[in-house]
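>> Question from a student workshop board

For tomorrow's exercise we were told to take the sequence and the ligand below, predict the bound structure, and bring the output to class. My setup keeps failing. Could a helper post the expected result so I can at least see what it should look like? The ligand is S-adenosylmethionine.
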Amino acid sequence: MLKQAIGRTLDRIYPWLSDHVFLRAYAWETNLMASIDPEAAVGGNWEQIGAVYFQDFIKHGLRPQHTLLDFGCGSLRIGRHLIAYLDTGNYTGADMSREVLRAGRRVVEAEGLTFKQPRLIQTQGELDFSFVDGRFDYVIATSVFTHLRRHQIEECLSNVHKVMQPSSTFFFTFLEGDGRITRTAFRQPFYFYEEAASRYGLHVNREASPLEQQLVSTRRSSQKSSRSLSSPPSPSLAD
Ligand SMILES: C[S@@+](CC[C@H](N)C(=O)[O-])C[C@H]1O[C@@H](n2cnc3c(N)ncnc32)[C@H](O)[C@@H]1O
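>> Workshop helper replied:
Here is what the output should look like for this input. Compare the format with yours to find the bug.
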């Protein structure tokens, strides 16, 4: 109820905010929601969504020895499965919301996973992956692009190669739609991701998914064609 009311109000305000303020406002909202209900703050359906995506990643080759970066990890809806599964030290989660990370640390403790030494990083919303060192076998961003503007997604796609090896896979989810913007669900057509990814040397593949959010796997098509978006395209209200 409170969530819907806050959401409706913010939906009206968000299109008018600059990118920086937009991300700060989004982090503020997530902090607020997470302090009330950390499971609902990341979209709810805690058990189902966590388990479905975790199984998907296993199906697509994730093994305990792999390293994984969970970009926009939230309160560890999927992260808790990954931490339990991966070898010690192989899970890194990053999020710009202090409160979801706090909730995530509680989950790690409650589920007896501290010994797995997950690394949880609070970011400032950077989309260039400068908040982390190293490269990962898998990078995931579930229910993250559904909250970002087009050019922010593009910025992320242009930089993700920095944390990928040539053989790495980047999974993200999206909500199919016509580009209509509301704060709670940014919907884009699949060709937007295909075209944006190919500009940065990435090949996307749409995977079958039982959930409303579609799962996409992304691989580097060739090292040569990877390039960074040095200055992101100028923001517009329509994207
Ligand atoms: C809907 S939640 C999903 C959380 C988690 N991936 C999951 O599926 O349960 C989206 C999360 O992405 C985080 N997020 C969005 N944009 C981000 C950015 N630019 N940098 C870091 N975190 C971001 C939000 O703070 C929020 O916790």
